[in-house]
Amino acid sequence: MNRNHLWILALCCWCLTSCIKDEALGKECDIESAWVEGTEYEQYFYQTTEMKQEVGSTETNIMFTVRSLISLSKEIPLQLKITDGATVNPASGSPQDFTKGPVVYTVKSQDGAWERTYNVIFQEATLPAEKFSFEHVETQTDTLLSGTNKMHVFYEQISSSEQNAKKYCWATGNPGAALLMKNSKPEDFPTYSTPDGYMGKGVCLNTQSSGTLGVMFNKPIAAGSLFLGKFLIDYVLSDALKSTLFGVPNGKEPVRITGWYKYQPGKQFTDVKMKVIEGRVDEASIYAVFYRNTDDEENSYVLDGHALEDLDRLLDNPLVYKVAQVKSLPATNTWTQWEMFFEGRDAPDDIVKAMGCNLALVFSSSKNGARFEGAVGSTLYVDEVEVSYKK
Length: 391
Hints:
six-stranded antiparallel β-sheet, disordered N terminus
C-alpha cells in the first residue's frame, strides 16, 4: 500500500467502520512484533512475558527490560515479524550486541519505495521514578500519513550512560488526533510541552473538537491525555478504548502521589452526540492504578481503556491491587498542589520485586474524554509529579 494513500484509507475507515487491526496504517514497511526466543535467554528477563514486544504502527523505539546489561549475552538473536514482502536489515534472527546501545533496524517495503527505521533498545530494570518533572521532550514528525505533522514526545532520563539515556514510558493520544490533522505544530495537538510549568517545563492538555468526521461517527472531541504506557493507533477508528495501554513495570509499591496543576473547563459541555448539557461543567482527571502485569496462567496483562471505564469498580478486578484518584480539581489559574493516596490491598513482595506489577498514571483534560464527552477548550496543566513508595 502506498503511503500517500493512507489519508484516504483513514477516511474510508471512518466511513466503513472497518477494523484498523485487519488493515493497519503504515504496514507496508513495519515491524509488527519483536521477540527473543529460547529458554537459554530467559535468565536475562524478570518475566518471560517481557521477551516479546508488540509494536504499534507509530512506534519507532522497541524497548526490552533486562536484569543486567553487564551479564547480557552479546549475541542475542532478535526475531522479527515484519510486513509481508518487506525486508529488514539486520536480518531477523541474526545475533546482535545490545549491550553497547540501540541497534538500528531498517525495514524496506516490497517495492523499495518506502522504509522505516527502528531503535531496538535493551535496558536494565531501573528503580521506580520518584519524580516526573517533564523536562525531557523531543519533537517527532508524524510518519504515519503525510509526514507534515510534528508532535511532542515525553521521555525520562534514567541514566547518564549513552545507551540508557532515554526511557520512552509516556504516551499521549496525539497520534490518533494526527489522523485528522495536517501541517500541524506540536502546540496544535491536544497534548504538548509548555515552557511555563510550575518549575521549568510542564505539560498542557486541552480538549479539542475532532471536526465533522468526529461528529458523524460519535467521536466529536479529543481530550488531552498523558499516561504511563503505550498508544496503539491500530484500533483508534474501530475501538478507541483498545488503543490506550496503561502502565509500565514498577519494582516498588506506591502509596501516594502529589503534583501541581492549573485547570480551566471549557464553556459548553457536550455529550457523544455533541448535544449541549446545560448546567454541567467539565472536569479534569488524575488517577493511578497499581496492578499485576501477568494473569494466573502467566500471560501478559495490560489495562486498556475498557478496563478503566469505571474506576469505582476497578478494585473488583482480581489483578488490581490499588487505585488512587484525585477527587476534585477545582478551576484555578494559579499553580495548585494536589495529592492522592492509594487504596486497596498490598501486593505480594516477591511479585513486586520481580517487576511483576505495573504502575498506570493518567492525566486527562476531560474526565469523560474516553467516552467523547466534555467541553472543547478545557485545559489542564500538570508538572512536578512525585511518587512516594512503601518502605
